[in-house]
Design goal:
453 residues; Helicase, Ruva Protein, domain 3; Zinc Finger, Delta Prime, domain 3; 5-stranded parallel β-sheet; two-stranded parallel ribbon; flat; disordered N terminus
């Protein structure tokens, strides 16, 4: 076929995207996900006409975009003798689900026909909408095949999870993407040999796709269209021009979102400034909300750097303010400055541990009445109750430290904060040792004249 034939073929197909044209028609045509498609697997049983509805179970397909969730569902529909119904959680409501359930029940009772319901993007369904699925799944009126890019543990209700088999799809390996690309170049449904794909261009598409089949085919289609104006050879230069930056696999609402931010925080905590900047760049390039990044940097400053360098929190807050003022892309600069400061700063989580330990005591009921000498003595009748009696005003004491009891009796002597020897906190530790010595050696003098507050 001549180069111009590629454009004509695309027009004849109604300009249907290459990724749609190349969608496998059976499970055997699917590339990758071998761990889910072996003989006797649940997906094979679901697609088998011989099962007659027996032995098949509802499944939830969880994986990143472009790994074949919709493809698997449509392949099952093509191979199975069961009635197949497709709904999208973006457009379907409770009414639509109930209509499917009623029809499925009637088909089962009247004709012995099993219905397979494919629900795409189930994580977009509310709890009430997911509840509407339960009777049909539990009673076997339908076999549910649901797809989601988000962790089902957080996005799917527990009763539905317990009645379904969770199958995890993995990003496609490089060899799988290569096979998919080669097939698309030669297949009559694809480019039908209209272009030649240079080896380095093939490698570039594989590298830029990050395990996403749809992105690989989209990049191939864009590059092939660019090659029409040249000599019908797809080169690495054409790929670079058609795909202006790496197609990062990052779903702002999905599991990858949590993985990248987790790696980012752990890299800062681990003082690997280069890794921290890498994950920062991934979030920025993927379009992550810079305010979210700034908030996580503030938390890291308080939790992981803490009192080893109190200046870190001020810098983190300043970076967040700067992002609000100047926006992106310039906001990446103060964000990067804060990340570098935090990653290279001395680390201490002792303040973080201290508040957690104190909260744990309170939640466990380990607290008592406020000592009388610390209670409010400003209202009528307070002094008659002994409130404020014996309170020692700290500013009247040497070093500004009043040697009196502050914790309730039940917790007297408890230690929540123990400074580390890192950075500025080592100096805090030296001072705290002197303070606690004064407090621990106190001699309570109830008759001592004090100032009530």
């Amino acid at each position: 076929m001549e180069a111009s034939g590629l454009q004509g073929a695309a027009m004849a197909r109604g300009a249907t995207p290459l990724a749609v044209r190349m969608r496998p028609r059976s499970l055997d045509e699917i590339v990758g996900q071998r761990h889910l498609l072996g003989p006797g697997s649940p997906l094979r049983a679901l697609a088998s006409e011989r099962e007659g509805g027996r032995g098949a179970t509802s499944v939830i397909l969880w994986g990143p975009p472009g790994t074949g969730k919709t493809t698997i569902a449509k392949a099952i529909a093509g191979e199975s003798a069961r009635r197949f119904v497709e709904l999208s959680a973006v457009t379907a409501g409770v009414k639509d689900v109930r209509e499917v359930m009623e029809k499925a029940l009637a088909d089962r009772d009247l004709y012995g026909l099993t219905t397979v319901l494919f629900l795409d993007e189930i994580h977009r369904f509310t709890k009430a909408q997911q509840d509407a699925l339960l009777p049909g799944v539990e009673n076997g009126w339908v076999i549910l095949v649901a797809a989601t890019t988000e962790n089902p543990s957080f996005s799917v209700i527990s009763p539905l999870l317990s009645r379904s088999l969770l199958l995890t799809l993995e990003p496609l390996a490089d060899e799988d993407l290569g096979e998919l690309i080669d097939r698309a170049v030669t297949d009559p449904r694809g480019l039908a040999g209209a272009v030649e794909l240079a080896p380095e261009a093939r490698d570039a598409i594989v590298r830029l796709s990050s395990g996403d089949a749809r992105r690989a085919l989209t990049a191939l289609e864009a590059s092939a269209a660019a090659a029409q104006a040249a000599d019908s050879v797809v080169t690495a230069e054409l790929v670079a021009a058609a795909v202006d930056r790496a197609l990062l696999r990052y779903d702002r609402q999905g599991d990858e979102h949590y993985d990248v931010i987790s790696a980012f925080i752990k890299s800062v905590r681990g003082s690997d400034v280069d890794a921290a900047l890498h994950y920062l760049a991934r979030m920025i390039e993927a379009g992550e909300d810079p305010r979210f990044i700034a908030r996580r940097i503030i938390v890291s400053a308080a939790e992981d750097v803490g009192m080893a360098d109190p200046q870190a929190l001020q810098i983190a807050v300043a970076a967040a303010d700067a992002v609000q003022l100047i926006g992106m892309p310039e906001g990446r600069i103060p964000l990067a400055e804060a990340v570098v400061y935090l990653a290279t700063a001395p680390k201490s989580n002792r303040a973080y541990n201290g508040i957690n330990a104190a909260i744990a005591d309170v939640q466990a009921g380990r607290f008592g009445r406020v000592p009388k000498h610390l209670r409010d003595a400003h209202y009528a009748g307070a002094k008659r109750l002994g409130h404020g009696k014996g309170y020692v005003y700290a500013h009247d004491e040497p070093h500004g430290i009043a040697a009196q009891q502050y914790l309730p009796d039940e917790l007297d002597g408890t230690r929540y904060y123990e400074p580390s020897a890192n950075g500025f906190e080592s100096r805090i530790g030296e001072r705290l040792e002197q303070i606690r010595k004064i407090l621990d050696d106190r001699v309570m003098q109830p008759g001592k004249r004090g100032k009530t507050e």
